[in-house]
Amino acid sequence: MKLEQAIQSTKFKNETHKAGLNILYTAWWLKTSFSQALKEYGLTHEQYNVLRILKGKHPEQMCVRDIACRMIEKSSNVPRIVDRLEIKKLVKRSVSSFDKRETMIQLTAAGLLLLEVTTKKADELFDSQLCVTDEEAKQLNELLEKLRQKEV
Amino acid sequence: MKLEQAIQSTKFKNETHKAGLNILYTAWWLKTSFSQALKEYGLTHEQYNVLRILKGKHPEQMCVRDIACRMIEKSSNVPRIVDRLEIKKLVKRSVSSFDKRETMIQLTAAGLLLLEVTTKKADELFDSQLCVTDEEAKQLNELLEKLRQKEV
DNA sequence: TCAAATTATATGTATGTACATGTATTAGTT
DNA sequence: AACTAATACATGTACATACATATAATTTGA
Question: Domain range spanning residue B51?
């Protein structure tokens, strides 16, 4: 669907302005299909993101701060997301012996198992939903990174 | 900043997968700078979006449903956003005489004024933050729309 | 014409975001 | 060593999202 149809608007200030809205809309669309796919496993897409990050270090633990700085949405409130994962026994919290201020998070066996299943689903979704060639994806990545040049 | 630095991850399944994450990250970044700019006016970026949509029809009114289907994030809860705008006297609610189920929303003079000031700020932000040429923006729009081809 | 289905909006709940503040621990300075 | 600053995390609050349900008005169709 064209952006014009999606947000029922035909006039944009310029192509750059339209690109901004197009990125926001595409991100919403992507998050939504993603969340949809995870729903049957009782995971939100942020919870999935945290599990994925933990997997990267598994079986080592990670502290909350290290998880936070790997999140796509930097202002995510990791302790709260971990709360929910802990209730579902997908992760375990413990106090760091190295620095007692740190809370160390570790995937449980259940978490690891659920992650394997959902990762398969999620990867399939990415492959089937995102209709660009490898070359186009590369181009898209370059454009997005150029666009973000002034990032602070 | 490259995506790799932003989310401290170097391995991606493929370029398409990376593009997906890149879109999500760029959208977060954009929303954040945007919200930052609106903060001094006491508006959230969703509230601004609703005001913008209302402006499109001003001085006519719009019903909640019409606003909703123009939102970038379709699952936004428009009645609740309108609640907050109404408290700040930026919009006015009234029951439609045409169909009493409908709630008609209209910008107030205060809303219109605030919108003018914030629109200027927002447009400046878009122009200064999004570092792409007109040609690149056009390319980006095409790629995003190709990517979303399978949209339902 | 009237009961049933549909529609428009409001509202409840769980989760997440954005930001401020509180608490415990560690690091740094003198 | 003791005081101060910084750090890591938890938690409170306001707003937003995602989805389910409630309520009232309108439309449909038997």
Answer: 3-132
Q: Is A30 within a domain?
A: yes
Any idea what the CATH number is for the domain that residue B76 is in? Answer: 1.10.10.10
Reading the block at residue B97, the tokens are 């005489």
Instruction: Give domain status of residue B67, yes or no.
Output: yes
- Tokens, residue B48: 């601004």
Is residue A150 scored above 90 in pLDDT? no
Chain B hits for A137, CB-CB cut-off 8 Å, are 14-16, 18-19
| pLDDT tens-place string over residues A37-81 | 999 999 999 999 999 999 999 999 999 999 999 999 999 999 999
Strand B103-107 and strand B91-95: pairing?
A: antiparallel
pLDDT in tens for each of the 152 residues of chain B?
Answer: 899 999 999 889 999 999 999 999 999 999 999 999 999 999 999 999 999 999 999 999 999 999 999 999 999 999 999 999 999 999 999 999 999 999 999 999 999 999 999 999 999 998 999 999 999 999 999 999 999 998 87
Place of tokens 């005489």: B97
Q: How many domains does chain B have?
A: 1
**Distance separating alpha carbons of residues B111 and B48, to the nearest angstrom:** 10
Protein residues with beta carbon less than 7 Å from any atom of strand C: A 44, 46-47, 73-77, 80-81, 84, 99-101; B 28, 31-32, 35-36, 39, 63-65, 68, 77-80, 82-83, 93, 96, 99, 101-104
Which residue carries 């045409």 as its tokens? B98
* Domain membership flag for residue A2: no
B125 within a domain of the structure (yes/no):
yes
